[in-house]
Write a structure and sequence with these properties.
By secondary structure, the protein is of the alpha+beta class. It is globular and about 90 Å long.
Length: 603
């Protein structure tokens, strides 16, 4: 039966005690991790968010009632215990922060009993993620998740303090706002007061932080909740957190400089890692050419080689056909892997096909009979053509050369992904090797085959580079943006840009994006109106706090650093959200449910 803690006051968390406290009378509270019964003496490992502490219950020190309670303790019971801190009588546990002390308990209260949990409350458990998410409140008791959330909390606190010292004001922006669809799908909230109308949950505070610059607040910062109704991946959630900032009267270098110092501060304070400044810069085009990615992992080599010139007159139709259609032929050199099993190579070919490629060509350098090159396309190439290709790839005996031939977007996607896959298979990277990179000079626009028009690569308020403004009409795809992403170990952890503040450039941008003046005003009228009254040059950046914390914690998914994450289908396995609602609630919102594609299903 649960007891009250009345009259008892916790004096310390478990690992706040040390040799310095020996002889003191203390009170600790927490969960029973495990119990060992040695007859007249019972040992209990007590757990709280700081770690473990050993309690000793000696029947000579306790009342018969309290010793009986100690005898009945089981895992996850919540208890309060008072006693004297002593040097351990048994062997010291070198693996515990409190491994050389224990508390000799003379008062015990069982504050709450517990059923046997559906999985062990310990580190490194091999439990299905679905079960962990269903019982997330138990999963969150595990020390590794607790460390992750405490790290995340420390990152947020340090960031707030750093930004305040840099002159930033923390200002909240609305959660219920206007739908301005230009990016991901909005989450919509029906209005009861205005039937038939909807609020949108913010995909980011973008428009509001620009309005704050118009309002003269100069430097804004916010740890903001954001919402995007999009397909999920391991590093995506429908609701997520940004560390968001905007600054007035700044250049790209000003924004990057502040953020470099913020990252240097965070990694030193949280992980004791020294980030060398300035962080390396790399233009978008160079990143794509060398790594096949706009967020390259630069912890290892295996860079792309463009061999289009080398193979343009060869006899292999796959290569020459791709070039004739305006594409390219590129490859990567996987050093020392020429002996890879055919089954593994076939798996790489299937992976490439899954990303839109027609196939994947390969050469095992010098691994054929008599030292010849073993290749999937050797019969289509003259020996001298093959030798020239191997030489252009810097191939040496025993190397595996992988080639993609198609339009650039597919070639980059395939080889960029294969490069990461091979690094994973060959264990080329360490999670504690933190390599930062600024990727700059992004294209302002990208052509959408689906929409048949150019769309903004970032958002429609991104400032073009002045020297490229002349190409907005004649060659929109050539225009570079004053945009920048901060990349860490192949992950984009933040991105931003300098914004457009001149009305004529903003009008031209909307025109290129296919908006009429009326359409632009309908979507973004409140921002455009504000720009009529004096707007400073401004720019900003937003971090994905979840992703940053994931990388700092060495976790594999952002779900490991979020207290209550959604599953891959955007559902909450713990609360069973989303769920049906009462008809009365629908009536109040003037809503009727019609489920497309399932006419028989009713709510």
């Amino acid at each position: 039966m649960a007891e009250s803690m009345q009259g008892m006051h916790r004096t310390h968390r478990c690992t706040e005690l040390s040799n310095a406290n020996i002889g003191e009378y203390v009170t600790v509270m927490g969960w029973v991790q495990k119990k060992r019964n040695l007859g007249g003496m019972i040992f209990v490992d007590l757990r709280d968010r700081t770690g473990l502490l050993q309690l000793i219950f000696d029947q000579n020190d306790l009342s018969e009632e309290d010793f009986s309670k100690a005898y009945g303790l089981r895992s996850e019971f919540v208890i309060a215990a008072s006693g004297k801190v002593e040097k351990r009588s048994g062997a010291v546990n070198e693996n515990l922060k409190t491994g050389d002390i224990e508390i000799r308990v003379d008062v015990l209260r069982v504050l709450s009993e517990a059923e046997t949990p559906p999985f062990p409350i310990e580190e490194g458990i091999n439990t299905r993620e679905e079960l962990r998410l269903q019982y997330r409140y138990l999963d969150l008791r595990r020390p590794d998740l607790q460390r992750n959330l405490m790290l995340r909390s420390r990152v947020a606190t340090l960031s707030r303090n750093f930004m305040a010292n840099e002159g930033f004001l923390e200002i909240e922006t609305p959660m219920l706002t206007k739908s301005t669809p230009e990016g991901a799908r909005d989450y919509l909230v029906p209005s009861r007061v205005h039937p038939g109308t909807f609020y949108a949950l913010p995909q980011s505070p973008q428009l509001f932080k620009q309005l704050l610059m118009c309002a003269g607040y100069d430097r804004y910062f916010q740890i903001a909740r954001c919402f995007r109704d999009e397909d999920l991946r391991a590093d995506r959630q429908p609701d997520f957190t940004q560390m968001d900032m905007e600054l007035s009267f700044v250049t790209e270098e000003d924004v990057m400089s502040i953020n470099e110092r913020l990252l240097q501060h965070l990694f030193k304070e949280v992980l004791d890692v020294d980030v060398q400044l300035p962080i390396r810069r790399m233009p978008y085009c160079e990143a794509m050419d060398r790594y096949g990615s706009d967020k390259p992992d630069v912890r290892f080599g295996m860079e792309l080689h463009n061999v289009s010139e080398v193979v343009k007159d060869c006899g292999f139709g796959v290569f020459t056909g791709a070039l004739a259609n305006g594409g390219s032929v590129r490859g990567i050199n996987v050093k020392g892997q020429g002996g890879m099993a055919r089954k593994k190579i076939d798996a790489l070919v299937d992976m490439a096909k899954g990303m839109g490629a027609k196939g994947l060509a390969y050469v095992c350098v010098g691994m054929g009979e008599g030292g010849a090159h073993k290749s999937s396309f050797a019969k289509f190439m003259k020996p001298e053509e093959m030798d020239a290709l191997v030489s252009a790839m810097e191939g040496e005996h025993g190397d595996l050369l992988l080639f993609a031939a198609d339009k650039d977007s597919i070639v980059f996607n395939v080889l960029g992904s294969l490069r990461l896959e091979m690094a994973k298979q060959l264990d080329l990277v360490r999670k504690d090797d933190f390599q930062f990179l600024w990727v700059t000079e992004f294209p302002l626009l990208e052509y959408s085959e689906e929409q048949g028009r150019f769309v903004a690569m970032h958002h429609p308020f991104t400032m073009p580079m002045e020297e490229d403004l002349q190409y907005l009409d004649s060659d929109p795809g050539r225009v570079r943006a004053k945009a920048y992403d901060i990349v860490l170990n192949g992950n984009e952890i933040g991105g931003g840009s300098i914004r457009i503040h001149q009305e004529h450039i903003q009008e031209k941008m909307f025109e290129v994006l296919g908006f009429t003046k009326e359409q632009a005003h309908e979507r973004f009228g409140f921002l455009l109106d504000a720009f009529k009254y004096g707007v400073p040059p401004h720019g900003g950046l937003a971090y994905g706090l979840d992703r940053l914390a994931m990388l700092m914690a060495g976790a594999d998914s952002i779900r490991e650093v979020i207290a209550f994450p959604k599953a891959k289908d955007a559902s909450c396995l713990m609360t069973q959200a989303p769920d049906a609602v009462d008809q009365k609630q629908l009536d109040e919102l003037s809503l009727a449910i019609h489920i497309v594609g399932d006419e028989k299903k009713e709510q």
